[in-house]
């Protein structure tokens, strides 16, 4: 498309209906009543009340008591207020070292406080200056004006945007500490910070060294989104980044409902939505979980209107060479956004234990190139011959179908393809992980019977008695998923043989963590364990029946497998963190999520005392309770009395992982809490 609208008349009607009902309101502004009132001294007072008029039709043995899902309890406890302003520092490495030292000095006591540098950032960056007209000079007003300009300016007005960004930079410089950067180029400096620090973790558009080009060619809202993230890596700019993030996440859903968007504009807005969604999770902004889910839904609606997941042909014969290049860049940009959304939905799925909003069945696109295509080029640039499509142009949806077919083998895959293939299998993993009792209900077995002994399901003593279901199709589906995961693991081994590990260390680590987490989800009732972990902080909210069911599960073979996968997650992250910093893999938020799930599974099994022959290896920097020096490398067995030491092993890894993006994780706080609260006993 050259310049026309990509939306239909039906979209216009839908947009008007949405505006009449005010559907553009940011759901993140809704603040549910917290389960606990966290007082100044760190204690929690229960605020949950079970309604007295609960219907007798509900069987207490079947339904959970009135409560909030653990993810929202976590948000209510830890993701309220602008902690990012106080915790995000300009130099992530400085913070991680300081925090890491504090951890070992204080033994990870549950009241540990993050050490702050010279004063509060709130004091360093007042929202309203100490002098001058507050209405004109407040930082909030400066940010608001920038966002309003970005929402109304056209992409064709490059000169106007250049002048506006220079003026905004000068205004913004009044609130930031003195910098060597020119006042006119402050926003450019923030975008550079984004490219240097966050782009390696989450690349959504090609990097450019020409910040002037980025300022004029990126959609203004995408440009401001990059500044909001970059500000969190620049000392003294965190407050600007937080305020801009909040304003951006309110403005973006409204902009995507416009009916006059061109395809490049729609693509950039999709990128901005994706970046804002993942930034909410990475930097734990206010109500981050609610915001991420709201933005995920808005992004899904937006990209389906764009038909992002449908293959668009490149009519090379009817286009001039230069236009071919532009079209090729646009198509590759669409693919990168599509697979970026798949990645984000995978992380959301494993965090919230929900079905991904995007299925591999929808993504009828060939795999993207491994390299980044340039965002811009001059008139003199040659038009190179495009390299052959990966896997011969095999569509991603077909790749996942091959993976799920037990009679087929996967084609040779690059590291980038390997990671995407595992993302594509997560919808099938969710089918069985979100409902761990499905086999118990349907075939009265806690786990599907082994295929090696079909008599467990096929032998019937009385052919007239069919009171027991066999559910062969469901059992076959389960083993098809397990087989696909094992097939993926073999494909990874072949990939590692032909692609140097040191050059692809980040992808290999992330992929293996997701593999172990997928296996963990298939054999552990994660939602029940997590719910119990968050309720244990207030014993009156605990559900004894669920606790008893976890005790029963802990004695099964599934629990043994779950601990093995949890231990492998911990081992991989522990070993990687022991490598020299310059050769370590980059950690992404999946490592944080997997570590949290592995920690609570270990906490639960240790508390039940049902797997005392298993454990994790004590790291050298963990204080030992014995005088024997060799005990520092011994195994910490899964016993209730070892709960604290086990949790400290996990907690010690959090600041190392999050140092990549300069934050202190709220999951770290929760695991430290669990160190002092063992799994509840069965009465």
From TrEMBL:
GO terms for biological process: DNA-templated transcription. GO terms for molecular function: DNA binding; zinc ion binding. Residues 192-370 form the Xylanolytic transcriptional activator regulatory domain. The keyword Cell cycle does not apply. It comes from the Eukaryota. The keyword Transport does not apply. Keywords: Metal-binding, Nucleus, Transcription, Transcription regulation, Zinc. Pfam families: Fungal_trans. Signal peptide: none annotated. This is Xylanolytic transcriptional activator regulatory domain-containing protein. It comes from Zymoseptoria brevis.
């Amino acid at each position: 498309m050259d310049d026309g609208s990509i939306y239909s008349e039906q979209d216009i009607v839908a947009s008007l209906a949405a505006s009449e009902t005010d559907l553009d309101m940011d759901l993140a502004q809704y603040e549910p009543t917290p389960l606990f009132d966290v007082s100044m001294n760190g204690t929690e007072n229960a605020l949950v009340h079970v309604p007295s008029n609960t219907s007798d039709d509900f069987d207490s043995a079947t339904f959970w008591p009135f409560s909030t899902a653990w993810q929202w309890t976590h948000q209510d406890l830890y993701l309220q207020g602008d902690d990012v302003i106080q915790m995000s520092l300009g130099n992530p490495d400085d913070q991680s070292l300081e925090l890491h030292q504090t951890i070992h000095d204080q033994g990870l006591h549950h009241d540990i406080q993050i050490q702050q540098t010279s004063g509060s950032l709130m004091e360093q960056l007042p929202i309203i200056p100490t002098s001058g007209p507050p209405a004109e000079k407040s930082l909030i007003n400066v940010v608001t004006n920038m966002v309003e300009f970005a929402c109304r300016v056209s992409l064709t007005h490059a000169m106007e945007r250049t002048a506006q960004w220079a003026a905004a930079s000068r205004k913004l410089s009044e609130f930031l500490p003195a910098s060597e950067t020119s006042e006119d180029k402050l926003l450019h400096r923030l975008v550079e910070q984004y490219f240097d620090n966050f782009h390696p973790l989450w690349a959504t558009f090609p990097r450019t060294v020409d910040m002037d080009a980025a300022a004029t060619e990126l959609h203004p809202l995408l440009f401001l989104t990059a500044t909001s993230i970059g500000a969190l890596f620049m000392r003294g700019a965190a407050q600007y980044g937080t305020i801009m993030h909040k304003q951006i996440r309110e403005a973006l859903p409204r902009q995507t409902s416009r009916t006059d968007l061109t395809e490049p504009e729609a693509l950039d807005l999709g990128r901005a939505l994706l970046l804002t969604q993942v930034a909410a999770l990475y930097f734990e902004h206010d109500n981050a979980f609610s915001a991420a889910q709201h933005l995920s839904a808005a992004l899904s609606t937006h990209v389906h209107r764009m038909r992002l997941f449908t293959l668009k042909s490149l009519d090379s014969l009817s286009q001039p060479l230069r236009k071919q290049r532009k079209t090729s860049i646009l198509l590759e940009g669409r693919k990168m956004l599509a697979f970026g959304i798949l990645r984000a939905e995978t992380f959301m799925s494993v965090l919230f234990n929900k079905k991904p909003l995007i299925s591999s069945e929808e993504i009828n696109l060939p795999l993207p190139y491994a390299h980044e295509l340039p965002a811009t080029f001059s008139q003199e640039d040659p038009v190179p011959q495009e390299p052959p499509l990966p896997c011969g142009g095999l569509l991603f949806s077909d790749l996942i179908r091959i993976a799920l077919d037990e009679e087929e083998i996967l084609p040779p895959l690059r590291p980038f393809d390997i990671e995407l293939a595992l993302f594509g299998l997560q919808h099938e993993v969710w089918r069985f992980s979100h409902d761990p009792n499905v086999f118990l209900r349907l075939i009265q077995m806690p786990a599907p019977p082994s295929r090696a002994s079909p008599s467990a399901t096929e032998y019937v003593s009385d052919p007239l008695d069919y009171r027991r279901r066999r559910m062969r199709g469901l059992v076959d589906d389960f083993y098809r998923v397990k087989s696909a995961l094992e097939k993926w693991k073999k494909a990874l081994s072949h990939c590692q043989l032909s692609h140097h590990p040191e050059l692809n260390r980040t992808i290999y680590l992330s992929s293996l963590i997701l593999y172990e987490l997928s296996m963990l989800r298939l054999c552990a009732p994660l939602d029940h364990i997590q719910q119990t972990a968050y309720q244990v902080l207030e014993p009156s909210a605990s559900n004894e029946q669920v606790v008893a069911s976890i005790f029963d599960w802990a004695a099964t073979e599934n629990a043994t497998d779950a601990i093995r996968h949890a231990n492998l997650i911990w081992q991989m992250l522990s070993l990687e963190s022991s490598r020299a910093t310059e050769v370590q893999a980059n950690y992404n938020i999946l490592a944080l999520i997997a570590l949290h799930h592995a920690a609570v599974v270990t906490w639960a099994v240790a508390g039940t005392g049902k797997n005392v022959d298993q454990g994790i290896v004590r790291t050298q920097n963990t204080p030992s309770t014995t005088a024997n020096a060799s005990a520092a490398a011994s195994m910490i067995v899964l016993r209730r009395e070892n709960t604290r030491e086990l949790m400290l092993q996990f907690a010690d890894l959090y600041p190392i992982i999050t140092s990549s993006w300069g934050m202190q994780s709220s999951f770290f706080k929760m695991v430290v809490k669990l160190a002092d609260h063992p799994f509840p006993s069965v009465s």
